[in-house]
Predict the 3D structure of the following.
Amino acid sequence: MDWTPIWLSIRLSFITTLILLVIGLPVAYWLSLTNSVPKLILEAIITMPLVLPPSVLGFYLLLAFSPQNSLGGWLQKNFDVQMVFSFGGLILASVIYSLPFMINPVKSAFMQVPQSISEASYTMGKTRRQTLFHILIPNIKSSIFTAAVLTFAHTLGEFGVVLMIGGNIPGVTRVASIAIYDSVERMDYPAANNYSLVLFALTFIIVLSVFLVNRKLVKSPLE
Amino acid sequence: MIAVNVSRRIKTYHGFSMLKVDRVFENGSITQVLGVSGVGKTTFLKMIAGLIIPGSGKIVVNQEVWYDSAASVNLSPQLRKVGFVFQDYALFPNMTVEKQLQYGTDDNVYVQALLDMGRMKPYVGHKPKELSGGQQQRLAILRALSTRPRIVLMDEPFSALDKVLRSVLIQELKVLIKVAGITCLVVTHDAFAAGEFADETFEMF
C-alpha cells in the first residue's frame, strides 16, 4: 500500500488547522462582540461552505486561480505562484472550506462567557487584548480544542474541493480521499479498502478523543 | 468628589423609562444606593465605571471629566479603573483565588493582606467553582480592591454572606475603605443599619 496519500492528507489537515487557529480565533472574537449587519454578512459568507456543494466552491476557486484568469495570472506573473493543481492551492481551498468548523464553535464559546467577566477585567485596567489572552481564551480552551480537532477531521475527509482545484497528481495533490476514488476507478478495490479503513480509523479516533476530553471537563461556572 | 448628572433611556419589564441621576458623592464617603428592582441601580454603577454609556450628561471625578456628552468625552473603563463588585461576581473561572488578586496588582504583601481580611487564606489555590457562594462573593470584593482603586462600586456585595461573616467583613472593609480614602457606592436591596457601613443614602426613583 502506498502511504503517500495518507501522509499528504495528514499534512494538509495539520497545516490547515494551524492556519485556521491563527486566523480563526481573532475573527471569531471579533464576530462575537456585536451583531452589526456587515458582521452578519461576513458570518453568512463564512458559513456558506457548510451548505454549499464542495464542487461549487472548488469550481469557483479553480476559475479564480487559473493562470488564464486575472487573479491566478497575477499571482503567477508576480510571485511565480501557481495555486491550481498544487499543494498550496489545496491548503487555500481547505482553509476556506473548513472556516465554519473553526470559527462558528469558537464564536459561540466566546459569546457564552458572561459579559461581566470581560467587564471585570476592563475595570482592572486590562486592555481588550490582555483580556482576550488572559481571561477569554483560557476559559474556552475546550471549545478551541474541539473546533481544531473537528477542523482537522473535516479536512481529512474533504473530496470535492480538493479534486476540483488539485486534481489527482501523485505525491502532490492525491490525498487519501482522492486515492480511494482513483482506486475504485481503476477497479482496485483492495487498495480503496485499505485507504478507506485507515481514514475510518483515523477519524474515529479523532472524534472519540473529542468526546473523551470533553467528558473529563468538570462543569465550569460558565455553564 | 464624584459629580454625576446623567440621563439614559433604559429598558424595563414595563417598557422604556428614563433614568436620571443628579448627585454629588463626597470623597471618602460610603453611600448606599437604594431603589426598587428595575429602577436602574446597576446601570447607574456601570455608567460611572464606563461600562455603559449614558445618553447625555456629565460625570466629573475630582475635576477630571470622565464623561461629557456635549464635548464627546468618554474615558474608557481601563482609564477610570474603578473597583467593581459585580452582582454575579464575574470571577475568572480559569484563575485561582490568589491569581485573581495578582491579576490586579504585583504587590504580593497587599495580596496577602487582602486574603487575610477576606478570610480566604485557606483557599488560595482554589478556583471559583471550588468555592461556596459566600467565598466567591468575598473574593469578588477583594479582587475589586486589588487595583487600589480610588472609587469602589459594589452591586449587592454582601447578599450571599451569613450574618456573622457579613458583620465582621463589613467592619473590616469599612476600616480599609476609610483608611485608603476610597469613595464607595453600594447598591443594596437591604438597607444597612444606621452607622453599620454607609455614611449616606441615595434613593433612586
In short: Chain A has a mean pLDDT of 91. The interface with chain B takes residues 114, 116-117, 119-127, 134-135, 138-139, 218-222 of chain A (CB under 8 Å).
